[in-house]
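Now for a concrete sample entry.
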Amino acid sequence: MTRFSGALASILVLAASLFSSMANAQTPARFDFVFEDPASSAVTTGYVVFDLDLLPNPGFAGFLELPDPLVIDIQATVSGAAVGNGTYVLEDFTQIVWDTGDGTLDLSVGTQVVGQPLSGGVAWGDIPCIQDQGPMGIGGGCGDFNLFTNPLIVGPQAASGYDTQGVINTGPQGVEPFTLAANGGAGEPMVLTSFIRGSMGPTAPSFAVPTLSTGSIALFTLLMLMAGWLAVRLRG
């Protein structure tokens, strides 16, 4: 009987591990972005990886302090700026803004999000937005996507939605809706010109994400183990 108890305990441990894994599963979606300064050669290219299960669409997420389960990874490379060129990763960013405006966006793989029509004759990514501004003065009917490497002042004490607590580093900083500036916000302003969901290719972050097929295989294995245990018990 002790042998059976040991087998049962092993199955229960496996089951607990399986269900814990499935409960923590993510649905990663990588979005490649480009911010460009129309008056200079400054450009920021990179990607953000969201957990699609947590991404509001429609909706607003911001000023979201990082780290946060919604944001799996970020990488942004600034080039062509007078100051602040370089590659910045998730750990360099303090906050993020995501706002779909007043509509639901098509976030299918390969689909350009900038320019998608919203109500009122505007589009996601319009600068400036002709509609009223949204939560805390951000984006409004045109939405917003922004990254911050310096902490923001959030609340009534902020003169605008993008007031910082002081320049701490020279990474790209959101200064207006859909607009990053180099050198901690003091450099060239770069506007969002492209935001496209890409594939999770080799340049994507390396993290293990349980999938449905993996969970199904694990569940099948668990059932086989339980069947084997019952067979042994019946023979005993």
